[in-house]
């Protein structure tokens, strides 16, 4: 199945990154969010990143102009009627996701594949809320999307082989390497990453080390590009907490219980980079 027009729901950090990557790889992109303000901020972020790539010589001026011109923005979800493939990258709130998928199911033609970039919500549960469960799949990009090479592709029980193959092919067209995961809590990436981040927060909570020591140990001792606390700030502490709750509830193992300090930060509105304060101060 040929994908020409690619829809993205949500113009935040992840959605904007996905839209940018798709446009650079030659796809026509429809980027939707619920307000002009959100859409405008997403479009501005994409322009800034494309311009930087152009300055750095990674994108010619003509390709920059062409990629920017391939993206249209809207606040109207019914615009997805023209999309062959849609990725949803809205907030990690189940009710919101179900409402979006129900709208997409209504507006998109029968051939359209509907993917979720969810990091924690079961794909099978999303599929069960639509009339096209065989065309529902997880397409989980990593943050920052334009830089990270991986896409985790998650098949739910009803996902068809054609949907799966098309998603693998699309990932490659977008310059990413897909890795298949099955539909268990946290899939692969977050099942491994989040316990490490949570343990780093426990180290801070129990006074094992300062935030700087913890991050330095993992950066210089393990060659990680950034320390786990700085990474948690990049991902968003609310997202980290949501994923840990999913792992804890879904797998029933105490080892996934979120550190009380993480919960306290989230309850205080310290969500990481996006709120200006997390384990580090970004104001
Ligand atoms: N958007 C676009 N490009 C970005 C970017 C962003 N948000 N952040 C950094 N970049 C680009 C920059 O343009 C820069 O390129 P140039 O300087 O050549 O223009 C390049 O990435 C490197 O950036 P920096 O020099 O600022 O810093 P760095 O070398 O430390 O790299 C990093 C930054 C790529 C984020 C790197 O630290 C890294 O790989 N960190 C780990 C990221 C990671 O683990 N991501 C997965 C998170 S888990 C997830 O996403 C799944 C989930 O569900 C939670």
TrEMBL record:
Binding site for NAD(+): 10-15, 33, 92, 97, 119, 143, 274
SUPFAM superfamilies referenced in this protein's UniProt entry, alphabetically: 6-phosphogluconate dehydrogenase C-terminal domain-like, NAD(P)-binding Rossmann-fold domains
Molecular-function annotations in GO: NAD+ binding; oxidoreductase activity, acting on the CH-OH group of donors, NAD or NADP as acceptor
Matching InterPro entries: 3-OHacyl-CoA_DH, 3-OHacyl-CoA_DH_CS, 3-OHacyl-CoA_DH_NAD-bd, 3HC_DH_C, 6-PGluconate_DH-like_C_sf, 6PGD_dom2, NAD(P)-bd_dom_sf
Domain 3-hydroxyacyl-CoA dehydrogenase C-terminal: 186-282
Annotated site (Important for catalytic activity): 140
Keywords: NAD, Oxidoreductase
GO biological process: fatty acid metabolic process
Pfam families in the cross-refs: 3HCDH, 3HCDH_N
Start and end residues of each 3-hydroxyacyl-CoA dehydrogenase NAD binding domain: 7-183
Family the entry assigns: Belongs to the 3-hydroxyacyl-CoA dehydrogenase family.
Name used for this protein in its record: 3-hydroxyacyl-CoA dehydrogenase
